[in-house]
Design a protein that fits this description.
Length: about 425
């Protein structure tokens, strides 16, 4: 957004609780929101305008949009439905608002979050300033270490798709005095969906993909958090993932039954096929799981997350892709550091070292495949320092890539070789 698109500074020196919309549409707040929207990038909504296109559009259109927001005549556009594959199968439906609506939602979020967030439970960690998935995992570990080793692992059935608008707006009205903001939020909730060229109305749900959705989810689910606190339970929640830690299965069954009733009052349904009262050791939480060593609870990457990593690395290092090791290393640098940063809490160095060895094994096999002609392979192996005998044995059995990649090649292409290529390490 350029200076031409910036809203004028309000003459007010401040805003009261009943003028949150004015605060949201202030010049400074909208500029900060636009900076965040640009940084997040993201695809175009139903209007087809990219972030860059929208910046140009707002140079002339923003004053009129701002006025319609202030007088209550602004109507959000429908969201564009996008299906994202889930690790366990199926798809997660995202609703992508237009960039203009993402800007407005972000501006609202920046005003509403400081107002509402401090009232949330300290055990809620999802999409909150000062909280993170790592904080949730560490809190869960503390409960298990303290002896609460039965977990009530609750999964809600398509939570974001089934949020009841009336119940949510009732909870919001208890926290927000500005009726114009409440009206605008309801319009965002009721904005239609465009999928495959067909427009449909929406009577429930808050689409994942809009900046406001996580805050709205926390407003609704905070009621369950407070009930768990009143009952003295040890729990941790990240968005719609909630784990309650107890000492016995009998206590866990009682907690689960109470939670079913509490969620039902919010018009939410527990997904019975994914919900369980079980040993904490056998469940995953936010990609992590726990294991015991010398009476100490340790953190580990859950098996499904490890499987997903291996599958992604297999895709990036497939020997039929025809990419050089330098290109593969660049692909790995885009994926591995982010995965490693998220799972840096894992207390399993041996697992990470084994993954590193496996990755380098695959890369050596890729290199051999690229030297597929025996004479080329022999020459390149000799250039790496292989003896005539070793280079001859590998080149003479040229198509056994996987076996040959461990036949002395780990000496010719050691860890330092891949470090120089820029291959990221997991350990």
């Amino acid at each position: 957004m350029t200076d031409e698109a910036k809203p004028a500074r309000s003459a007010q020196t401040g805003w009261g609780a009943d003028d949150l919309l004015g605060q949201a549409l202030s010049r400074e707040n909208v500029l900060a929101a636009w900076k965040r929207v640009k940084a997040n990038k993201g695809s175009a909504g139903v209007d087809g305008r990219t972030v860059q296109d929208t910046g140009e559009y707002l140079k002339t259109a923003w004053p009129a949009i701002r006025q319609r927001l202030l007088d209550g005549s602004y109507m959000p556009g429908p969201v564009r439905r996008v299906g994202i594959p889930k690790p366990g199968g199926g798809t997660r439906e995202l609703g992508i608002p237009t960039v203009v609506d993402r800007l407005i939602q972000q501006a609202l979020l920046q005003v509403l979050q400081p107002l509402i967030d401090p009232s949330f439970s300290a055990h809620s960690h999802g999409f909150r300033p000062g909280h993170s998935a790592h904080g949730a995992v560490l809190e869960a570990q503390q409960y298990v270490q303290a002896g609460y080793r039965i977990v009530v692992d609750v999964d809600l059935e398509k939570f974001f798709d089934h949020v009841n608008h009336d119940i949510l707006m009732d909870r919001l009205a208890k926290r927000i005095a500005d009726k114009r903001v409440l009206r605008l939020i309801r319009r965002y909730l009721q904005a239609g969906i465009l999928a495959h060229g067909v427009h449909s109305e929406r009577f429930e749900g808050t689409p994942q993909g809009g900046p406001l959705s996580p805050l709205l989810a926390n407003v609704l689910l905070d009621e369950v958090d407070r009930e768990l606190e009143r009952r003295g339970h040890r729990f941790v929640r990240y968005a719609d993932d909630c784990n309650v830690y107890v000492r016995s299965r009998k206590a866990g069954e009682r907690v689960l039954q109470a939670l079913r009733g509490r969620y039902a009052r919010l018009a939410l349904k527990v997904n019975e096929s994914k919900t369980a009262v079980a040993d904490a050791w056998g469940r995953k939480f936010l990609g992590y799981c726990f294991w015991a060593y010398n009476n100490e609870v340790k953190r580990a990457v859950a098996p499904p997350a490890l499987d997903k990593l291996r599958e992604r690395i297999r895709q990036l290092t497939r020997r039929t892709r025809g990419r050089s090791l330098e290109q593969i290393a660049a692909d790995l640098r885009e994926y591995v550091p982010g995965w490693k940063a998220y799972f840096r809490l894992a207390q399993t160095p041996r697992v990470m070292r084994d993954l590193d060895k496996w990755l380098r094994h695959r890369l050596r096999a890729v290199q051999l495949k690229q030297w597929r002609r025996g004479t080329t392979m022999f020459r390149e192996l000799r250039r790496l320092g292989a003896s005539v005998d070793l280079a001859g044995r590998i080149a003479g059995n040229a198509r056994r890539w996987w076996r040959n990649s461990s036949l002395g090649l780990n000496i010719l292409m050691p860890v330092a070789y891949f470090d120089r290529l820029g291959v990221p390490r997991l350990s």
